[in-house]
């Protein structure tokens, strides 16, 4: 195993807060009596429902099939009855088409098997199709359909498959536990992914605060594939694809481009484990590992939670502090605050973090930019958030995009985190980006 | 679970925890040892000048924010810094009415005219001082010797000059090391300069305390050390080259570094975040420009001191430096694409 001193430029060091859950093994979470399943749990088109109200389904059965290339199917997380096909609440606040599923209380909850994808005999396309049919999306949070990501475009080739075990968000220990407990699934997933991408080598990137996971995986490295583990210094947002590529390969992904431009493909480690677990059985994804933590949670832990579990049920089971004040889906740097506890855990949910009123300090006074430069020194893309913030105030959106590379910003929030004037920089940028996108659609 | 009302905010949900007040308050802390030393060296005179400058700056800040129908901005501590810096750059026996006027000008012209904190192009204290220098060239070059025996028993009469009256210069005016060098060719001992055993502005004399204050801010990450370092290095190297060419004609780099307002200016005024560039390379260019200007003014200009003008010149260039020198954005081949 190699410890590289390489990392990307800039970045920040928020408190890690991982100690309370990183030593807790993954535990199965109980099945909620009613599951809420939005059809669209991924970027891209929602699937098409193939069941009807009142129908009984078995765990693992197809509920919705993919609708086009950028779409994945949805499988039943439990054995039960389709209660209702109707709009369901989601994290964004919008109601979207979905399924309410009642679970059988006394079912053994065994998973049905589908058509296995045989590693030896499957072609590139068959593996890619198998990953799509398993309903797999990036479990790191972005929920981009994995099959679409690993399909190498015409004229390009992949040299390096990077497995992302960075997990740089504070509080999150999901990937950490997966690496410590699911090594065989991870290596199996890597075999599928290497075959699908035709990569020459595979690097598992891990941050130095998970040295135990790096040691463990290094000790278990299989001989049949060229895979290695690299440890990189701890820094946020190293889990971002571009930053990880720079840290591991010393290359920069061109502005506006994808990792394949530097002949790399990056897949999250939990996603990789899921591929290795599901494809040999032809199964679909029905559950995922989630860190439930934060000062407001009583029984913190890493749980294997059925997709569709209502947040209210989850929090009830783990117990929350009565001063619960904010709940985030995802980590506190990039996750979203929840407005409504009736939403559910979806494929892209990596964590549920609960803060109490003690941690929330919302009456920060906002000052004008004092040009301290902290944001400039924090931005991993070397953008100038100070200038961008000023331009956003004057609504000079075109200038932000054309001269100051606004569209490259991937909203990591490092700039807002460091700003002593408490200017909501990344919030401005999200808004500006959406305004620009709308303008572009119109014109 | 009981019914909860959830608080909603957008990510990031964590913040580093520093704030403008914390930064500014720490700059004030960093200036305090120096201020006390100048009172120790110059007695009540210095105390009165410094307090008047702070009082007038804070009062002006308060009144102007009220007049513009805004919440008073004195709680951000930036006006205190302006007042302190102004007081520290004035002669210890500077008439109080002039000092008061300087504080008003610093805040009104140097800051509010540009739109307040964050929008000022120049360091406000230096704007105040520059106006005072133009208006009262004699008073601002009338010095008091350090450690006079009566410094804690009597107050110099020129301090009490009536408003709009020039003070009667009452015999304590001594040459500063820089003017002694410039006009009489006398070189003061570098160690005397470092310890502050010379006459000069209230706060510019003790180089060591200035450096300690700066070091404190750098350690707490409240100051960009590259600014003072690039200024001081530029002055050192530039004057070192001249000195090695002709040590008879040019002062030693040690003398240049430790004399006059260089240390105070480099550490506490040029480093003013608002009026300095934002990128690392920009900051270094800014420091080199200021450092070179200081040497040029001191050696070839008509004034003994050049720090104030050099920094104001740097401030004026700073927005242009920011426009011309930008970080290379990740994934692009040059800063401008
Ligand atoms: S949110 Fe955007 S601008 Fe801010 S630090 Fe991250 S990438 Fe840079
Ligand atoms: S961190 Fe905030 S105050 Fe500092 S330069 Fe950036 S926007 Fe301005």
From TrEMBL, chain A:
Its main location: membrane. PROSITE patterns: 4FE4S_FER_1 (PS00198), 4FE4S_FER_2 (PS51379). The lineage of its organism: Bacteria, Pseudomonadati, Bacteroidota, Cytophagia, Cytophagales. [4Fe-4S] cluster 2 binds at residues 379, 409, 412, 415. GO terms for molecular function: 4 iron, 4 sulfur cluster binding; electron transfer activity; metal ion binding. This is Ion-translocating oxidoreductase complex subunit C. Binds 2 [4Fe-4S] clusters per subunit. Its cofactor is [4Fe-4S] cluster. The complex is composed of six subunits: RnfA, RnfB, RnfC, RnfD, RnfE and RnfG. NCBIfam families: PRK05035.1 (NF003454), rnfC (TIGR01945). It is a peripheral membrane protein. PANTHER family: ION-TRANSLOCATING OXIDOREDUCTASE COMPLEX SUBUNIT C. Residues 13-22 have a biased composition (Basic and acidic residues). Keywords: 4Fe-4S, Cell membrane, Electron transport, Iron, Iron-sulfur, Membrane, Metal-binding, Repeat, Translocase, Transport. The keyword Repeat applies. The keyword Iron applies. Residues 356-388, 400-429 form the 4Fe-4S ferredoxin-type domain. GO terms for biological process: electron transport chain. [4Fe-4S] cluster 1 binds at residues 369, 372, 375, 419. The gene is rsxC. Its EC number is 7.-.-.-. It comes from the Bacteria. Part of a membrane-bound complex that couples electron transfer with translocation of ions across the membrane. Residues 1-22 are annotated as: Disordered. It is found in: Cell membrane. One of its GO terms (cellular component) is plasma membrane.
TrEMBL record, chain B:
This is Ion-translocating oxidoreductase complex subunit D. HAMAP family: RsxD_RnfD. GO terms for biological process: electron transport chain; transmembrane transport. It is found in: Cell membrane. Its EC number is 7.-.-.-. Its main location: membrane. It comes from Marivirga arenosa. One of its GO terms (cellular component) is plasma membrane. It holds the Pfam family NQR2_RnfD_RnfE. Keywords: Cell membrane, Electron transport, Flavoprotein, FMN, Membrane, Phosphoprotein, Translocase, Transmembrane, Transmembrane helix, Transport. The keyword Phosphoprotein applies. Part of a membrane-bound complex that couples electron transfer with translocation of ions across the membrane. It is a multi-pass membrane protein. The chain crosses the membrane at residues 37-60, 96-114, 126-144, 193-218, 225-245, 251-271, 278-300. The complex is composed of six subunits: RnfA, RnfB, RnfC, RnfD, RnfE and RnfG. Belongs to the NqrB/RnfD family. The modification FMN phosphoryl threonine is found at residue 176. Its cofactor is FMN.
